[in-house]
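Researcher: Hi, I'm a grad student and pretty new to this. My advisor asked me to get structures for two proteins we've been looking at. I'm not sure of the right format, so I'll just paste the first sequence and hope you can take it from there.
Model: That works fine. Here's the first sequence with its structure tokens right after it:
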Amino acid sequence: MDHKQYAVAAIVEIARVERDEKSAGPVGAKSLSVRLGLAPRGLELQFQILRSAGILKSVRGPFGGYALGKPAKSLTVHAIYTALKQAQDDEIPEADLPEVAAVFATFQHAANAAETYLSRVTIADLLEKVPVQKAAA
């Protein structure tokens, strides 16, 4: 999985905690990174971008962490990808050879089809595939 996919997985986990552990409050980036097997710093950098985009909201302090910035039903995977992609410098290089141009055009077409599909998938849709987990007593 690439960093965007891990960010989506982390957001699904935040939504799961909000669904299953109603009194849990915000979810810490450290606990998310441990659960997903990621470096905490990398996840924090992605979350800063997503917070700026309004996808996540952050709470400071000893019980701080991250929560969804929008309802899971209105938050699409495409919105997350777009926010993270805009933060990168993903320019397509100029292609001098027709063979290279054909390959770039093919992958761009595939990316456009993926974006269309991801714009219809919400975090709530993904959350439906995650079993309910009882909060530890």
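Researcher: Oh nice, that was easy. Here's the second one.
Model: And its structure:
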Amino acid sequence: MTLMAHFVELAFDFEDHATLATLYGLLEPFSHMNLVLDMTRYNAGSVQGYLGILSSGLGRKDQARAHLETALDLEQRMRARPARIRVAYHLAQLLLQSDDRRDQERARALLDDAESENRELGLRNLPKPQS
């Protein structure tokens, strides 16, 4: 299942809508779970985050936002920092598409926090958001 998380990111980056839809159908029954690579005890984050990324790639903005908001809360409570950074980045990208000024402000705050935490953890730079 953890391998599917990588497929989600690839399908999103390549805007492969058929694969996005297929992965959504495969992951949706596991929306209440987290992806953990047992050998290293690495928490890849909640399935909700990946469903949010898939929904966003499919243009389902309301569904994507609901998944990503849920995931952000879960990642925060689990203290899963790399997963939280990924979810915050994708939620911010989604919010940047909104015409609502509050969404735009929240997106910038999420990006600032994600970039700061990313630097603190010594991870690679986040891509510049599409606006």
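Researcher: Is there anything I should tell my advisor about the second?
Model: You could mention this: DSSP finds six helices and two strands in the chain.
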